[in-house]
Amino acid sequence: MVHHLPNRKMKIAVVALLFFTLFACSESRNEEFLFKSIPSEISDLNFINELKESANLSILYYLYFYNGGGVAIGDINNDGLQDIYLTGNQVANKLFLNKGNMVFEDITDKAGVAGLADWNTGVTMADINGDGYLDIYVCAVVGIHGFKGKNELFINNGDLTFSEEGKKYGLDFKNYSTMASFFDYDNDGDLDMYLLNHSVHTDNSYGPAAIRHERTEESGDKLLRNEGGNFIDVSQDAGIFGGANGYGLGLATADFNNDGFTDLYISNDFHEDDYYYVNNGDGTFTEQLKDKFSQVSRFSMGNDAVDINQDGFVDIVTLDMLPEDEKVLKSSMSDDPIYTHDLKIERLNYHPQYARNMLQINRGGEYFQEVALYSGVSATDWSWSPLFADFDLDGKQDLFISTGISRRPNDHDYINYISSEEVERQFNASNKLDQEALNKMPSGKVKNYIFKGEDQLKFIDQTGKWMVDQPNLSTGAAWADLDNDGDLDLVTNTINEPATLYRNDLNENSAYLKIKVNFMAPNTFGVGTKVITWHHGKMQMKQLFTSRGFQSSSEHLVHFGFGNSLQVDSLYVIWPDNTIEKKYDIAVNQTLELTPSEVRDKVDYLSIFPEPDTWFQKVDDLPGLNYKHQENRFIDFNRQKLIPYKISDRGPAVVVKDLYGNGSDDIFFGGAKSQPSRIFLQDGNGFVEKYYSEIAFDSLHEDVSAIIEDLNNDGINDLFVVSAGGEFTAGNEALKDRLLINDGKDFYRQELPSYRENGSVVKAHDYDKDGDIDLFIGGTAVSKDFGKIPKSVLLKNEVGTFKIIGNEVLENVGMVTDAVWTDFDGDSWVDLIVVGEWMSPRFFQNHEGILKDITGEILDQELTGLWQAIIPFDINGDGATDYLLGNWGLNSKFSSKESFPLKMYYADFDENGSTETIVAYEKDENYYTVAGLDELGSQMNFFKRKFTSYKDFAGKPLKELFDDEQLDHANLLIGEQLASGYLLNVKGKFKFESFDASLQVAPLTTFLKYDFNGDGKEEVMAGGNYFGVSPYHGRLGSLSGNTITSEGKIIEGNQLGLNFSQKAVRGLDIINFNGTHYVLVTFNNDKPDFYKLRQVNQSQK
Fold this sequence. Notes:
Layout: H1 12-23, E1 35-37, H2 40-43, E2 71-74, E3 83-86, E4 94-100, E5 103-106, H3 108-111, E6 120-126, E7 135-140, E8 152-156, E9 162-164, H4 166-169, E10 177-183, E11 192-197, E12 222-227, E13 230-233, H5 235-238, E14 248-254, E15 263-268, E16 275-279, E17 285-287, H6 289-292, E18 296-297, E19 303-306, E20 315-318, H7 326-329, H8 338-346, E21 353-354, E22 358-363, E23 367-370, H9 372-375, E24 383-389, E25 398-403, E26 405-407, H10 412-419, H11 421-429, H12 434-440, E27 443-444, E28 446-447, E29 449-453, E30 459-461, E31 471-472, E32 474-480, E33 489-494, E34 500-504, E35 511-517, E36 530-535, E37 538-543, E38 558-563, E39 567-574, E40 579-587, E41 590-594, E42 601-602, H13 605-608, E43 616-619, E44 654-657, E45 666-669, E46 678-682, E47 687-690, H14 693-696, E48 702-709, E49 718-724, E50 738-742, E51 747-750, E52 758-765, E53 774-781, E54 793-798, E55 801-804, H15 808-811, E56 815-822, E57 831-839, E58 842-846, E59 851-853, H16 855-858, E60 865-866, E61 869-873, E62 882-886, E63 902-907, E64 916-923, ...
Parallel strand pairs: 18-21, 35-41
Antiparallel strand pairs: 1-34, 2-3, 3-4, 4-5, 6-7, 7-8, 8-9, 10-11, 11-12, 12-13, 14-15, 15-16, 16-17, 19-20, 20-22, 22-23, 24-25, 25-29, 26-27, 28-31, 29-30, 32-33, 33-34, 35-38, 36-37, 36-39, 39-40, 40-42, 43-75, 44-45, 45-46, 46-47, 48-49, 49-50, 50-51, 52-53, 53-54, 54-55, 56-57, 57-58, ...
């Protein structure tokens, strides 16, 4: 727990150490750029947010000292030109009147809007009194560090002057305010307000998540209902949190579930979760973050919300501070240690949080799918304001991000300095070390980022191409069409440098449509209006809200780009009162002013956003099935700190089969270590657990795979269970697989040949055609010696007795995860395909009972990967069997590029008798370790001697960390392909094709083939997700469950009625219970789910 310092010294310097360890936070080429920076000498936009550190005020005392100011853009005098307001922390705010041609006039003094608060933050323009003129609301931090003032509301008098009337409207708060947003949350026609506040570190701000329920006046967020111009605090009754642990830095308003009511997304810094408030339509909200999101940013800063994948549902981006630059990355603290991470989730009840940007794709309002790593927008360093807009007018949303911090308080070397006992003692006794401490923090100047939106949820970094890549300290940012040329320009508020005006010089022949909304008073600007367009069959949807990004508000404008289209086919306007108008054949390249007709239809949201005809219906359970897989508490990284992921969490085994030949499906569930396996038999009323002593007392093993087959040809099905577990060293008795013979009443164990491996899979088939069932058992890893190739086993069944068949190639095939018996060459002898991690799919051709590796003859490329699953399936309907492959996916920090595969070196690098693995990825044609100095040094002591500071280590490529001899003598395993996909059968040879985005968002671990929709054709269900990685990687939990049709179409989970996100799928099975078909979904460390097949069951009635 962080302790409150008794004197003036609640310094962020000390807080940085404690918080980060326990709880975490060139112009000469201008003419080539899409955005040209207009110098203030030309634009007269003369504003500098000048910050000066003093003896009593700096980041050592106020943790948000460098958060900077905001920007608001709007037409204050209704002349058709957008004006600019900029806030200052230690300087006066300024208002600039747009004179045209990117020239501005400072009218601050005349307008009377400089403000009186000592420390201003966010700013919003909105017509609060409904007179048709934009007013200005300025937030301030008041009541700490001697800051005086209040939040100020400047009411527009209509003559370029304003009157401060915050008290009159009930909005003159003296809080620690970040920003505000005006919107109509109760649909009564006027604008209400959400006030986003932030906490400061005190004893009260640390502890369990439940702190959020105890309201704190100064730092708690507030929801204000507008009652005839008087704003009433309804936070408590509306269900809005307001605790001391709220560190609000981002605020997004949108109708996320398309029900006609405005919902909220709040970004919270530090240990507090973000908040996702769903509007109940009765004046209250329900916070649903844990239900809808698999994970969120850890130091969540600014956010923005817009529909980026053109499905009509609003998506979200939140920013954090993951650096792209290796030198900064390896010298900065970011994610929690694994113990702290688990403590916060399991005991303090926080949601999983990771220090990177998050891009959350809204799947029909049912759940959000996090894809930032896949999309290429996860790492933009210390980031403040994200702004989505179609900057190049191609019909896709692009993304601008403002960045930079004056000093980095999360620098490892700085924290080591400040954490020494002597420095801390002097530091707390006086301020004489303040400047030295500040000087220890490196500069955090960073280039702003801008990304071009592409198909398939991809973004391409255009920094240095669209915009100068000069390091700066940009905080608040806003967009507007400042020169009325149809494209959007940008303004950023910059610390200690002039505010930047970026003019969009798009010179391509691209079409736009600008929509200005004139609605009924008091919501004169039509805040909340939705506009939906269709052109060439593509939907675009925008909703009019202006507060976005960080501490800023953009123009009151709905803006679309249409590429080379000449007109918009149709346009729907959904007004704030949930009425609708439709227009057709709209010309592009115009500003369309929309005013509601007197007669309007009530909108039917289901006709515009129809609910999908789902294939599956989730049911709570099936009678009698009370199984839950429960992992024992074991952390593989304690034993080998540098392994890429755990190997102890690959269960449970599950088998659905008729055990006793009575025509009913029974279920075997495997257990984790210290958890016995369980068998449930189906009777007419449900499932009854059957006790078998040989199984009940067999709880030492980790059960990861199993089969139920008649293995001794007595007409009764038997049981074979594969053992595993990362805590068992090679040769341990607990790694013995188990053959359990069923005599019709009980099971008894039959001895197997002597082998003890950390297994992964068993696959059964009579491969030698001698009339009994043989077994292949894949080995996945060697505990405490990860990287060593385990042994796989081929067991030949000789009249119920198994013996190992020697096959050196198959025995040493690799780190196996799955296999399939399949006749891939069509010769009537069933062959074997094996897949695994750090290996290529391997094809073993069956030569009349002898398996021969012919991979090189039928695969057209090297395909080493982190393969997880395989299933035969004709994906293109040509009659030839193809093979679907589950891989690690493309939404993780593991990356592989052409000519630059993911690498893992395996050797005893420190020559102490035990091996290490060094995982490395490529960046700028150099390889860098995934692990940082702390991880490397904890496993290999020579690193601590070689690098005495993080600065010395950071940014050094692999070849400078290890000498050539060390790397040359190490075994090298590689991953050339991380995408999930399929092997397309082309005349008996196989070509790899990757799946589209929806199947790349997490590891794909299992498949199930069945006719799920009753159309007479089989489909394949895909499941996955994996959580056995360190917090640096985050949870790989975005895969919701998909089906792949025989035409190759991939259907998303929300269209099917599936949602596996936030759970790690280990098994998919069809179960027939009393004539009704269900999918049994088995998860690691959780209860199973059951989904009823709608169409199949209906067709059978």
